[in-house]
Amino acid sequence: MSFEQNLAKVVSRHEELSELMADPQAVGKDGYVKLSKEFAQLSPIVAVINEWQKACEEMAGLENIIAEDSSDSEMKILAEEEFRSVKARMPELENRVKLMLIPKDEVDSRNAILEVRAGTGGDEAALFAADVFRMYQRYADVMNWKHETLQVQETGIGGFKEATAIFSGSNVFARLKFESGVHRVQRVPITESSGRIHTSAVTVAVMPEAEQVDVEIKDSDLRIDTFRAQGAGGQHVNTTDSAVRITHVPTGIVVSQQDEKSQHKNKAKALKVLRARIFELERLKIELERAQTRKEQVGTGDRSERIRTYNFPERRITDHRINLTVHSLNSVLEGNLNEIIDALATEEQAAKLAEIQ
Prior knowledge:
Largest sheet: 8 strands, mixed
Order of helices and strands: HHHEHEEHEEEEEHEEEHH
Radius of gyration: 27 Å
Distance between the termini: 9 Å
Number of helices: 8
Helix content: 40-55%
Number of strands: 11
Shape: flat
């Protein structure tokens, strides 16, 4: 579909919605609310399209004046000046239209559940997992988001085998979605006596928070086991079977939760994470199907892919998806991630823009 056809389609739909909304009784209360929401979303886009079309018509009129033999020289000079002025505005207007036509991901505005897991590297990987998890908590503070830790499995020396949190606020998933993947660290571990640099890795998974209407979970599809919560090193920290392990049999997804002393609260938190994982699994299936036809994803979308390296000796961070290197490692670990995330968002926007050319 050409650029002009895209514009005509948007304008036509906007006019159709206007006609449908003229008879609220025919569409019903719920239908009217849905149509009103779509109409409100399209209205600012149509306003920019109208501005662009008006400029096109103005240019065509000026071209006619310039081409006419009967036009006096002074009028032609004025028309040529005005033509150049309008033509200079066209790229900016066209770009505004294209930006507004970029399809919005409906989950971008949602809260996010973020999981960090230690990968290869033993104790050093667990220590880095704790660093990365705290980095996102600090980033949430920078963005004025709320964050709640759902569960943490600690090691004996302050590392995290895995940790999960929910982040709430404005456009949380839109910002954090770029963080899914393998994060590699190169540094001298505190456990290393010879000063040798080690390479370790952690995996980050970011999922949009799912509502009950998004995912239907049948009780018959769940296997729920209870056990005693354990602390670092395997010692029991609870005398009752308050910890919960939920297995979703159709997908094989397993979620454990033991941070709360109440079995009921642990089950509720585990179901929240389970719902998000199932929703993300289905969402990624759709995205991968789309990616095969439009080649628009940043990277392959494979969570096993290494996306970023944190090099402590050189105080630098490299994001391999866009070949971006910043020499502000300490600042990033303190939660100042916007420079990197802004660059990734710009790259995604450029890919989507190319799709509607």
